[in-house]
Amino acid sequence: MSNTLSLAIWIPVAFGALLLAIGRQENANASRWIALIGAIVGFLVTIPVMVDFDTSTAAMQFVEKSSWIERFNVFYHLGVDGISMWFVPLTAFITIIVVLAGWQVIEDRPHQYYGAFLILSGLMIGVFSAIDGLLFYVFFEATLIPMYIIIGVWGGPRRVYAAFKFFLYTLLGSLLMLIALIFLYYKSGGSFDIQTWHKLPLPALAQALLFGAFFAAFAVKVPMWPVHTWLPDAHVEAPTGGSVVLAAIMLKLGCYGFLRFMLPIVPDASREFAPVVITLSLIGVIYIGLVALVQQDMKKLVAYSSIAHMGFVTLGFFIFNELGMSGGLVQMIAHGFVSSAMFLCIGVLYDRVHSREISSYGGVVNTMPKFAAFALLFSMANCGLPGTAGFVGEWMVILGAVQFDFLIGLLAATALIFGAAYTLWMYKRVYLGDIANDDVRGLTDLNAREFLIMAILAVAVLWMGIQPKPFTDAMHVSVTELLKHVAQSKLN
Q1: pLDDT digit string, tens, across residues 413-435
Q2: Burial, 370: exposed, middle or buried (Cβ in 10 Å; 0-12, 13-18, 19+)?
Q3: Cβ atoms of 5 and 80 closer than 8 Å
Q4: pLDDT tens-digit readout, 293-322
Q5: In which residue ranges of the chain is pLDDT below 50?
Q6: Using CA atoms, how far apart are residues 243 and 246, in angstroms rounded to an integer?
Q7: Is the dihedral of CA 186, 187, 190, 194 positive or negative?
Q8: DSSP class of residue 262?
Q9: Contact in structure between 194 and 260 (CB atoms under 8 Å)
Q10: What's the rounded Cα separation, in Å, for the pair 162 and 321?
C-alpha cells in the first residue's frame, strides 16, 4: 500500500508544527529556511502522484485505508482519481511560491506565518485526498483555522473584520453539509465511505434536501454569486501569500465538492437544479466582470476577476458534457497559476509603494521593465489569451456550453470581453505611459528572488497553455465515468 498521500499531507503539517514549536523572532532566518525545506520536500513527495498516475482507469489510486474511529466505522481513507489528482501537486507547488514570496516581506513572527501556511497546505491536500466523508469534513473545516489566523494577524487595517466575515460565511454553510453527511451515514447502514454513497438509491425529496445542504457549503466556498461578498474583503486585507493561497487553492475546495459529492450522490437533483446553477454562474461571469471593471483597488479587481473565473467552472460542471466538465477542471488548475501570478505582481508593487490603488501608479514600465514584461504575460493569461493557461479551460467550457445551448455559450463568451477590458485597462493605467509620480520614479526592478518566482510561474502558465494534454488525459476517464453515472441515474 502506497503512503504517498499521507506523506504529502503530513510532511508540511509536521514542518509547520516544528516552526510553531521552535520559532522565535531572533531565529527568523532559520524559520524561513525550515519553511522552504518543508515546502520543497512536501512538493517532491507529490511527484509520484503525477508520474505514476494511471490515466486509463477511473478507479481511486494511491489508496490508503486504516481504521480511525472504530465505533462509528470511520476510516482514515485516502485516494485520488483523475478529478482530484492534479490538485495535490498544485497545492504543494503553490506553497513553495508562497514561502519564497514572503521571504523578505514578512518580518513580524515569520515562524508563525510560515507554520500556518505549511499546516494549511497539508490540510488542503487532505481535502483533495479524503474518500471518507467524516475525514473530508475534518480537513475541509480545519483549513479555516490557519487562513483565519493568516488574515487576522498579518492582514491589513480591517483584517479582523475580514477574517471574521470569511470564517462565518464558510462555517455556516458547512454545518448544513455536516447534517447531510450524518444523514448519508445512516442511510448507507453506518458507512462514511464516499464511494458507497455514490451508489445509494435516494428518493427525490432526499436528493433535493441533500443538494441544498451541499450547495450551501460549496457555493459559499467557490464563491458563487450572491454569497461572494466575503471574498473581496478577505483578499484586500490578506497578506500577499494569503491572497495567493485563497485564490489558487481554497476556492477550488468548493468546486471540488460539487464533483465529489453533489453530482455523484444526488445526480437527479443536480440535473433538476442545473438551470439554477447555470443562471447563478452566468450572473457571476457577466455581472461580476462588470463589477471588476469599476474597481480602483488592484487587489479587489483581481478578487472579482477570480469570482468571474470560478463562474466558468461551475457553469462547465452543470452543462453535463465532457468538454464542459473537463474545461471546468482545467480552468481550476489554470486559475491556480494565473491568479497566483496576478496577486504576486500586486504584492511586488505594494512592497515598494505601500498602495494598491491604481491611481498611485502609472508608467511602471519605465522603471521596472522586466517586471512589466512578466505582468503583461500574466495579464494576457488572465484575459484568456491563446497559448496561455487561462485560455484552455475557458475555451473548453465555451465549446461545451455552445453544444448544450448556443445562447448560454454566447453569454459565457462575453466573459472573455469583460476579462480583457478590466485586466488590460488596469495594466494600461499602472504600467504604461509616462512616469506618474515620484514613487514610481524611485522604483527598482525585480530582485533575484522575485525574478525566480515570476519566471517559475511564467513557465507554468505557458507550459499549461501550450501543452494541456497531460492535464486533460489524466481527468478524461474519471470525467467520462462521472457523466455516465449521472446519465444512468436519470434513465433509472
Answers
A1: 887 888 888 888 888 888 887 87
A2: middle
A3: yes
A4: 888 888 888 888 888 888 888 888 888 888
A5: 1, 491-492
A6: 5
A7: negative
A8: I
A9: yes
A10: 37
